Amino acid sequence: MNILHIDCSPRPESHSRQLSGAIVKKLLKATPDASITRRDFAPAPLPHAAPDYATTLSSPATLAAPLKGALDLSEVLIREVEAADVIVIGTPMHNLTVPSVLKAWIDQILRAGRTFMSTPAGKVGMLRDRPVFVGIASGGVFTGEKANQPDFLTPYLSAVLASTGLKTLQFFPVQATAFLDREQARLAIERALAPIDLTFLAEVPCPIE
User: Fold this and answer.
1) How far apart are CA 42 and CA 63, in angstroms?
2) What pLDDT tens digit does each residue of the chain (209 aa) get?
3) What are the residue boundaries of the structural domains of the chain, listed by start?
4) pTM
5) Contacts of residue 209, Cβ cutoff 8 Å, sequence gap at least 6
6) Is 2-201 a domain of CATH 3.40.50.360?
7) Which of 207, 205, 196 is nearest to 29 (CA)?
8) What angle, rounded to 10 degrees, do the helices at 72-83 and 100-109 form?
């Protein structure tokens, strides 16, 4: 099994990193021989869309004849997704939605003619569906009875990843992190991950030895 593990927090000891790490740990416990492709956007953030990339994607004509090298990074990132059996994302909620480093990744993998087709009914994904586990850390509260702020992160990720064909998402929020001590955070992460569904592992093909 191949795991694509993505972290987005600029903080090295963040709650979202602990969440994604705990998810990966559960996956490795079930499949110890799994390989991991790592993308950590704190030490190595992706660049935002460059002029050549934006120009190439601006019309069907320019996309058919892309500028040299304009799609290289996009292709690397898309192939990482294609090679993964499961994707694990750890992300903070920044100002009610995804951080800009995660948006930069999305802007590279959401590509007409490669990961989606445009139709009169909207975008149709071209990638094979696979589980996407998203650990979300928020200083505030955005779900449940005590929610005091809107949530633009989960509906956005659900919609944009579905546009590529990635529709099987599980979200694991840890909220009010600004008020949690270390032990409270540990317990909150355990509670958040309690409903994780790993039944897909039974369908993941084993490598031939």
Assistant:
1) 31
2) 999 999 999 999 999 999 999 999 999 999 999 999 999 999 999 999 999 999 999 988 888 888 889 999 999 999 999 999 999 999 999 999 999 999 999 999 999 999 999 999 899 999 999 999 999 999 999 998 889 999 999 999 999 999 999 999 999 999 999 999 999 999 999 999 999 999 999 887 665 44
3) 2-201
4) 0.94
5) none
6) yes
7) 196
8) 90
